[in-house]
């Protein structure tokens, strides 16, 4: 089993952190995104969208998409649970995970791709949209600040995959100068607790 | 238990179709998106992002996000399975579901929102980005066409949630004049089979 990834990219970090929380060792194959090593015919055969990370199982089955890879490991090794423990809890975690992905991580990613032109050899950057995406990311930090006023972690009482996604999104957001403020005390406290976990170094 | 939704919107249809496949009856509360009935303080308390659908359980717990709502019902009533049956299968379904969501449904939605100005009272449309999103959706139809050459359904041999997402995205895409072509024979055949299911009328 191995994972094709790019060490500096935010989504592969989510998987590494998830595996570190589970205590699962992994072999990694590094791909240079700027050189387009993720876009070769060989990699497109593993993932038609040409993105990282991609998990390759020993039987050759390839699983792309961060959330799908984490779902696989949650199912083969449920402890410690990072995606909820019963039907209601799993749905709550899935909701926050999805909202952090769409309203924060994706917005930060769109801001990065459309304002920096980092991938301009393979997409058409629209800077005006990138700026809007950055504003959207900032607005979602306000929602998280209110959520964390009443809950120690994003999905509730327990640390989950939603916290991993948010930490990785917030760290990546530095690149486009999006950050929570000193007034967002709950977010700041949450960040310090999550960033202090050993898995944050994975 | 009830679901707040808007009958004409594509994401609520995904949930209705999922529940129809499971044979689960549901009470629905209609919200008028153009009037902003989804953005009231009452609805924001149920879902901070102010989107539909939202599932409200009898204990008052609210679950937003289509995929999270479907995850809930898959867990409380596994038959018939729509999200995979073992760890590997679940990961494969999760991958295709996610890619259909991000590379098709989301792109169609962004094309709609940014080129029509439908929600211009609550967001800044960037038409150039909307057109790029539409092009991206079209490119993903090519990926699906190749996938369906070798597989009867998107995630493989079985009908799954990924087929529901794709059907709802493709039907919604008519609004922005994105459609598969007559040359995309596998996609056309798949569409006819999935659209003929009773759940497609839900």
TrEMBL record, chains A, B:
<dbReference type="InterPro" id="IPR004046">
    <property type="entry name" value="GST_C"/>
</dbReference>
<protein>
    <submittedName>
        <fullName>Glutathione S-transferase family protein</fullName>
    </submittedName>
</protein>
<dbReference type="InterPro" id="IPR036282">
    <property type="entry name" value="Glutathione-S-Trfase_C_sf"/>
</dbReference>
<dbReference type="InterPro" id="IPR010987">
    <property type="entry name" value="Glutathione-S-Trfase_C-like"/>
</dbReference>
<dbReference type="InterPro" id="IPR004045">
    <property type="entry name" value="Glutathione_S-Trfase_N"/>
</dbReference>
<dbReference type="Pfam" id="PF00043">
    <property type="entry name" value="GST_C"/>
</dbReference>
<dbReference type="InterPro" id="IPR036249">
    <property type="entry name" value="Thioredoxin-like_sf"/>
</dbReference>
<dbReference type="GO" id="GO:0016740">
    <property type="term" value="F:transferase activity"/>
</dbReference>
<keyword id="KW-0808">Transferase</keyword>
<dbReference type="InterPro" id="IPR034345">
    <property type="entry name" value="Gtt2-like_N"/>
</dbReference>
<dbReference type="InterPro" id="IPR040079">
    <property type="entry name" value="Glutathione_S-Trfase"/>
</dbReference>
<dbReference type="Pfam" id="PF13417">
    <property type="entry name" value="GST_N_3"/>
</dbReference>
<feature type="domain" description="GST N-terminal">
    <location>
        <begin position="1"/>
        <end position="81"/>
    </location>
</feature>
<feature type="domain" description="GST C-terminal">
    <location>
        <begin position="86"/>
        <end position="202"/>
    </location>
</feature>
């Amino acid at each position: 089993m191995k994972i094709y990834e790019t060490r500096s990219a935010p989504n592969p970090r989510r998987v590494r952190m998830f595996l570190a929380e589970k205590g699962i060792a992994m072999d990694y194959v590094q791909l240079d995104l700027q050189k387009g090593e993720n876009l070769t015919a060989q990699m497109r055969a593993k993932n038609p969208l040409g993105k990282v990370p991609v998990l390759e199982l020993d039987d050759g089955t390839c699983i792309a998409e961060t959330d799908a890879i984490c779902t696989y490991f949650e199912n083969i090794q449920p402890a410690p649970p990072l995606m909820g423990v019963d039907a209601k809890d799993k749905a709550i975690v899935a909701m926050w995970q999805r909202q952090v992905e769409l309203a924060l991580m994706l917005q930060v990613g769109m801001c990065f791709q459309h304002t920096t032109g980092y991938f301009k050899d393979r997409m058409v950057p629209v800077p005006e949209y990138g700026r809007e995406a950055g504003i959207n990311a900032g607005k979602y930090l306000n929602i998280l600040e209110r959520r964390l006023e009443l809950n120690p972690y994003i999905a509730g009482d327990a640390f989950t995959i939603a916290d991993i996604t948010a930490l990785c999104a917030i760290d990546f957001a530095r690149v486009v100068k999006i950050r929570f403020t000193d007034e967002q005390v709950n977010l700041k406290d949450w960040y310090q607790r999550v960033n202090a976990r050993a898995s944050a170094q994975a």
